[in-house]
Every structure is written in C-alpha cells, then in structure tokens.
Amino acid sequence: MKKRTIVSIAIISLMVFGGIVATAATNNIESADGNGNQFGIFERIRNRIRDTLGVCQGGCNLVEITGILEYDEVYFFIGDVELHFGPNWYITSAIASLDYDGDGEEELIIDELLGLVGTEVTVEGHMQSEDWMSVFTINGMVYREPGQPIWASQHHWRWRHNDNVKP
C-alpha cells in the first residue's frame, strides 16, 4: 500500500511540475507590462513553482504595494510588479472566500479580481523576484496564508477544520 501511495505522489508531482513548466513556457516569457521588463524562462518557472507550492525563498518577508490594479488578459499588475494569486486553474474555478471587490456577490476569485481592475488596491505578499509577487492579502483582507496554499494537495486546512478526518 505504501509503495502505491509513493508512486501516486510521484506521478501527481510530475503532472503538477509539467503543468507549471508548460504554463510558464506557453505564457509570454516577456512581461506584458508594456515596459519591456523580462523574466528569463528559468526565473519564471522558478517563481511559478515557488508560488504554486507556497515557498517563500529566504523567509516570508511580506511587502505592501498600493496602486491601480491592471490586467492584460493574462496577468495582474500594480505598476511594474506582476501579481500572482495562484494557478490559473484555481483562480478561475474556486469561489472567493471574501468579497474583495465589495459588490456583495459570491463570485469566482477571477471575477473578484476583475472587479478591482482600474481601482486603487493595496496588496501584501512575498516578492519571489524583483517584479513578481505572490499575494497574501488584498486591501487588508486575507487571500491566503503564507505557507502551503489551499490548492496544494497536502494543505492542512482540511484537517484543522474537520474533526472527523485525521491526517
């Protein structure tokens, strides 16, 4: 049974890594902020892996940025900083836990974020590199906690809040 579990975890890990690499390779390698800022392909892959797994290189030192939220149909930005809220499949399929855009509607995360485009927003997060942020708060409201995110397969939230399930 343990061998089957290890093989399953290995296969899932390869699939996740393959998806991350494919996403990083197919999405523009060049930052689409219009200023010609570029991420090298390996820096983009590294940042995407760190963001997906919840890794804060060098400790989770949070930085706050305030500015007008922009969206270029692929990425969100404040100024030159590319903001990341987790994998695209997650933000386009998960219902937001809070009403970030204040419209009173229960919406997908992507729709909450789109509701903020063009407005002044304050985000707090970890800078994975000079122009890449993994976002943890939006306008003072928790988006996700530092550490392993909810979309990772071993997130502890499901164990903390369900007395009937043991890890």
Would you give an account of this structure?
This protein has one domain. It is 31% helix and 22% strand. It has five helices and six strands, in the order H-H-E-E-E-H-H-E-E-E-H. Strands 1-2-3-5-4 form a five-stranded mixed beta barrel. The radius of gyration is 17 Å and the shape is globular. The model is unreliable at 24-37 and 154-167 (pLDDT under 50).
Backbone structural class: alpha+beta
The beta-strand count equals: 6
Element order: H for helix, E for strand: HHEEEHHEEEH
pLDDT < 50 runs, ≥5 residues: 24-37, 154-167
**How much helix, percentage-wise, in residues?**
25-40%
Number of helical regions: 5
Give the terminus-to-terminus CA distance: 16 Å
| Rg over alpha carbons | 17 Å
Q: Give the overall silhouette.
A: globular
Q: Roughly what fraction of the amino acids lie in strands?
A: 15-25%
Overall average residue pLDDT: 76
Largest sheet: 5 strands, mixed, barrel
Domain tally: 1
Oligomeric status of the shown chains?
A: single chain
How is the largest sheet built, in terms of strand order? 1-2-3-5-4
Q: Which SSEs are present, and which pair or pack?
A:
Elements lengths: L1 H25 L14 H13 L8 E10 L4 E3 L2 E4 L3 H4 L17 H6 L5 E10 L2 E7 L2 E2 L14 H4 L7
Parallel strand pairs: 3-5
Antiparallel strand pairs: 1-2, 1-4, 2-3, 4-5, 5-6
